[in-house]
Specification:
486 residues, alpha/beta, Calcium-transporting ATPase, cytoplasmic domain N, Rossmann fold, Calcium-transporting ATPase, transmembrane domain, 3 domains, three-stranded parallel β-sheet, 10 strands
């Protein structure tokens, strides 16, 4: 250490210092020396002297405080600090059992590995999405606090060290863990303990790591994430996911992609179950209302293969909604019909059936003589309204809360193409002579076609109203939450 100025931190170990290193240590030519590096506080505990101005005085308490102050100052600036110590060995000595004792403390090395620019934004996205990032590191507490503050992880919360974790009983830790976002100077056992306590609290825990010692915590977590570049084979085997670029922002991108996939799967299920329930309601209610069979098997097959299939597949490539990373995580124990999906399937399916039978029933009960042609005309109206209501429905459920005008009609071009293709095919079945015989349809008058389209649009308006009510309720919940917080 440079002894000219108390508390000074040398910026380099110059050639002159390296030349006279052997002399103050009493090394003869051909002698051996052990170099030891590690945490500064750990080295101070096994050092008895210090290299200072070419001399090796005893490491007394003032010098220890001076070294500790320099260590803290470097750590406060986000540096990872390594202490360096040496010990002279006997001539021709290679391995000495007590090499790590009675060391001569030489100095400190400060290293800084600044976070990637995109990590801070990724942390902010996590917090907005209801995901709480937690830093668990073996670094100095001041270093950990500095980095956590830069990234927005600390957020004014408390910090625990490995020594604190050893003192706190597990029962108390289950309460404290909800307020702590930074853990420093921790061991692999501490990481495992933190993961277990978080899981006991009901959290879904994702753990990142790259070393062999991280494997138990990676295995214990709900989702273990290993580093693909710097990670060991053991950590990769213990993990559920491997990052090929070792970038935290990639995890956030994966979370967003997972939410999009989950959303689109629910939209797919919502669409198919609703349309199929509508067909079931049509087939069940028509006989009770004194109407003929509303659809023949071939028409039902067409609806299931074309009007159901093409738009449903296009829903799978629906782009992410605007608030996808501003929602709280879904409850993993929630059923597939949670979040109002089951209610939506029932009431929209029933509304589809009512509109279809209303439009066709007005014609059926209005004709004087009910002939075979009138029966086919009745089925054609039902067939057309059912197909059109499904197209209106698929456009309305592209977003769970936003209106179609806000999400954009052209933001999912495959879906728009599927809807247009389905409508054209449906019109071809109704107005093409050779298809009329195959599907037992008859051409509708322009008036009845417009009525069918008008009734179908009721589905679109009804679902948009439902989404508007959901947005209103969400705003009210936020306002009530803010008032409660104040």
């Amino acid at each position: 250490m440079d002894g000219d100025t108390p508390g000074a931190i040398p910026d380099r170990l110059g050639p002159a210092q390296s030349v006279f290193l052997g002399a103050p240590l009493g090394l003869n030519e051909g002698g051996s020396i052990a170099f030891v590096k590690g945490a500064v506080d750990g080295l101070l505990s096994i050092s008895t002297s210090v290299l200072e101005d070419g001399q090796v005085p005893s490491l007394d308490e003032p010098r220890r405080r001076r070294i500790a102050a320099a260590n803290d100052e470097m750590a406060q600036h986000g540096m990872r600090v390594l202490g360096v110590a040496v010990k002279p060995l006997g001539e021709d000595s290679i391995v000495v059992s007590d090499a790590e004792s009675q060391l001569v403390f030489v100095g400190l090395i400060g290293m800084i590995d600044p976070p990637r620019p995109e990590v801070k934004e990724a942390v902010a996205k996590c917090r907005a999405a209801g995901i709480r990032p937690i830093m668990i590191t073996g670094d100095h507490p001041l270093t950990a606090r500095h980095i956590a503050g830069e990234l927005g992880i600390a957020d004014g919360g408390s910090m625990l060290t490995g020594a604190d974790l050893d003192r706190i009983p597990v029962e108390d830790l289950r309460t404290v863990v909800e307020q702590v976002s930074v853990y420093a100077r921790v061991s692999p056992d501490h990481k495992l303990k933190i993961v277990q306590v978080l899981k006991d609290r009901g959290h879904i825990v994702a753990m990142t790591g790259d070393g062999v010692n991280d494997a138990p915590a990676l295995k214990k977590a709900d989702i273990g994430v290993a580093m693909g570049v710097s990670g060991t084979d053991v950590s990769k085997e213990a993990s559920n996911m491997v990052l090929l670029d070792d970038n935290f922002a990639t995890i956030v991108a994966a979370v967003e992609e997972g939410r999009v996939i989950y959303d689109n799967i629910r939209k797919f299920i919502r669409y198919l179950l609703t349309t199929n329930s509508g067909e079931i309601w049509v087939m069940l209610l028509a006989p009770f209302l004194g109407m003929p069979m509303p659809l023949i098997p071939l028409q039902i097959l067409w609806i299931n293969l074309v009007t159901d299939g093409l738009p449903a597949l296009a829903l799978g490539v629906e782009p992410p909604e605007r608030d996808i990373m501003r929602r709280k995580p879904h409850n993993p124990k929630a059923g597939i019909f949670s979040g109002g999906l089951g209610v939506h399937v029932v009431w929209v399916g029933l509304l589809m059936a009512v509109l279809s039978l209303w439009g066709a029933g007005t014609y059926w009960f209005g004709v004087g003589v009910q002939t075979d042609y009138q029966e086919r005309y009745f089925r054609t109206i039902v067939f057309t309204i059912v197909a059109m209501t499904q197209m209106a429905h698929v456009l309305a459920i592209r977003s769970g809360t936003e209106s179609l005008l806000r999400s954009g009609l052209f933001s999912n071009k495959p879906l728009l193409g599927a809807v247009l293709a389905t409508i054209l095919l449906q019109l071809a079945i109704v107005y093409t002579p050779w298809l009329q015989g195959f599907f037992q349809t008859v051409p509708l008058t322009p008036r009845d076609l417009l009525v069918s389209v008008g009734l179908s649009s009721v589905i679109f308006v009804a679902v948009e109203i439902e989404k508007g009510l959901l947005r209103l309720r969400a705003r009210q919940n936020i306002e009530h939450g803010d008032q409660g917080a104040r």
